[in-house]
Amino acid sequence: MKKIVCLVIVSLLLLSGSVVVNAKKAVTYEQLIKEHNLKSVSSCPDGITPLKFSSPEELEEYLKALKKLEKHVVYDIQADVGSGFSINSTGYYAIKELHKDTPVGLAKFNLWADGSFFEIISVPSRSVGLTGITFGLDLRDTSSYYDIASDKQSVSIKGSGIVDVYIIIEGIIKISSKRYSLTINWGS
Question: Does the pTM of the predicted model rise above 0.85?
Answer without folding.
Answer: no
